[in-house]
Amino acid sequence: MSDTIGRLGVFAELNVPAAELPGSALGLSDASVRDALAGLGRQVATLQSVLAGVAAARSGRDRGHGGLVQGTGHRNAMEFIRDLTGSTRGEAIRTVKVGEALLEGHGDGAGGPAPDAGSDPGTDAGEDVPPPVPPWHEPLGVALLQGTLTSAQ
Fold first, then answer.
1. What distance, in Å, lies between the first and last C-alpha atoms of the chain?
2. How far apart are CA 36 and CA 150, in angstroms?
3. What's phi and psi for 70, nearest 5 deg?
4. Could you write out the DSSP letters of every residue in 50-92?
5. pTM to 2 decimal places
6. d(Cα 54, Cα 3) in Å, to the nearest integer?
7. Alpha carbon of 48 to those of 77, 81, 90, 125: distances in Å?
8. CA 52 to chain centre
9. 135 CB-side CA count, 13 A
10. Which of 43, 81, 89, 151 could lock onto 98 through a cystine, CB 3.0 to 4.6 A?
11. What is the pLDDT of residues 109-143, one digit of tens each?
């Protein structure tokens, strides 16, 4: 993610106040426009999916009315994303599902760290604990995070 933002920094035409952006962007070369659109579009979609997954994790039924999206008056993360982004129901569902899949194995979504594989209270300290099995879709998540896949694929 920081690589894409860093690459955008080389375009002085984009480092202007928002009101000046349309006129300034006209000064970009065709190649610069293509590069910026390709890199930025995928990164924004990936970030949106990850954040939708976090919103869903922080809005589970166990949180009741105290969940992240419930605090905004929405029933679930899909409605929240749909309302915020103006996307269709199907796009919002996909965004939330992809985000939830990307977060698997990375903590509980409540801001806490992922549980340590060897810290199961039901095991003895000297007992060998097998490493956790990665989810079947982990290669897809890696490809999405690297920019080789889009969430729509």
1. 19
2. 16
3. -65, -30
4. HHHHHHHHTT-GGGGGGSTTGGGT-SSHHHHHHHHH---HHHH
5. 0.65
6. 22
7. 12, 9, 15, 40
8. 6
9. 12
10. 151
11. 555 444 444 445 555 555 788 887 777 677 777 77
